[in-house]
Amino acid sequence: MFVTRAFARGLFVVAMPSATLLAGCDGPSQPSPPLKVALAAGDASGIAMRGDDVVFTFSVTNTSGSDIPDTSIGFMSDSTALGVTPPLQIRSITCSAQGATCPAIHGSSIDLGTLAAGGVFTFTVTTTVAADYGGRVAETFYFYSTDRAGSAKASAHATLQDSRDAQYEIFSTSGRRTAALVTFADGAARFQDLAGNAPVPFTSDQGGYLFADGSHFVTPPDMIIGRHDFGAGPETFIGGRAIDASPADIDGTGFTLFTADATAGGTPTTAVHAAAISGSTLTICMDAAPQASDTCPPASQWRYTFSLDGTLYTATDNQHGDTMHFQVLFARNSRDRYLVRAEKVGSASHFAIGLPGTAPPAPAQDFIGDAGGHWSRVQLSPSSYASAAFMSQGGFGPLGASAAMQPVANGPAGLQQLVRANDGVTVLLADSAAMAVQIGAPGELDLLALSKP
Fold first, then answer.
1. What is the pTM of this model?
2. 322 near 239, Cβ under 8 Å?
3. What is the dihedral of CA 386, 358, 182, 262, to 10 degrees?
C-alpha cells in the first residue's frame, strides 16, 4: 500500500497494486462463469484536509474464457447505504480498458454490456473530503458487479486522520514556547507544560473552538490561533504544526513583523517593523516609524547573522549586542512563511510574528480570533474594516469598530492603518493568505485566522 499526496491539488492516491480479490469473497456466491475482480485499493491511512481528493482504483477482469453478457458494475459507500451524508463524496468516475471499450458513465451505476473474454476495465473513482466535515474520515466503498447469473462485490476502505490533529509548537505573547497535542476527534488539547499534561477539553463555537475555561482558538491551515490560560492568566498564542527548517527555503523572504516586548508585570511595547532574509542574514528596520525595507534609513537597519539548530534559528546582531531565537512556520495550503519568536530574557518577554510581504487585503476577507482579548470577527476589505465581538454560543455582540483603512506611507508591504471609530485608537494591521495581525492600544496585539478557506 502507498499513500501519496500532491500539495498543489490536495490529492491522495490510495492503492494496493498487489491485492487481487475474487469478487464475492465478502459477499454472495460467485456467478457462473465467474467474474474476477482485481481490487487495486485497500485500507489506507493518512492526513486528509477538507476539499482534498481521495482516489480509489478498481479493476474488473473477465478470466472465464468466454464472453459474459449483461454485465454492470456500481459503487456505493457505507454512509450512502445508511442514508447519512458521506464524508467522502464521489466527484468523478473515469474508465480505461484493454480488449474492451469503455462505456458512457452517468452516475455510480455503469452498464458494461457484454464483457468480452480477457477484457479488462479499470475505474478510477475520485472522492472529495466534504467541505463541512470536521472529524476523522472512515469510509468503506463497495464495488459490485452483476450479470444475468448473479452478483459479487468487493470493498475498499479509507481511514484518514483529521488534518488538524497534530502536535503544535506553541508561541505566546508572554514569551512562552511550549507544545500541545490537539486531537479533534477527542475534543481535547494536551499542553506540554501544564501539570500532568492533563487533557483540556474543547467544543465547537462560533466558527472556532471553545475551551472549558472560556478561552478559544481557530484553525487556519497547519496552525492554531487563540487565547488560553497556561497558569499565569490568559495569553494570546499561535501554534504551528509544520516547521520549515531549511535556510534556503526562506532565503529572499520579506516579512511585516509585529512585536510585543515587556518587562515583568509591565505593559508590552508593541511595534511594526519590516524584515527581510538574504542568505544567512536577517535585516530588521528598527526605525521609530514603520518603514519598508527599501526606504529604511541605514542607521535604523539591524543586521542579524543566523544559524540553524534543528528547527530553531539563533540570530545575533553584534553591532547592537542583541541575540534572539525564532522559528519559521508555514501554512500548507498557501505555502506562506511566518516568522515567529517567543522567548524570555531575564525579566523581559519577547514575542514577534512576521507575516509575508503582501498586497492590501483582498475583498471580503473574514477573520476570527483573539482581538483585544475578545473572541471576535474582523472583516477586512481594500478600503474598510469592521469588527464585532462574539458572545459564546450566543451570536454577535454590537459592532466594536468600523472605519476606513489606508496604506501606511513608506510602510512595509500590505501594512494598513485606521483610526478606530469606537475609541479613537490608531490601529496598524496586515493580512496574509491564512491570518491577520493588528496592534492598537498599548499592549494590544491581536492574532486572527482567515475563517473562509
1. 0.73
2. no
3. -80
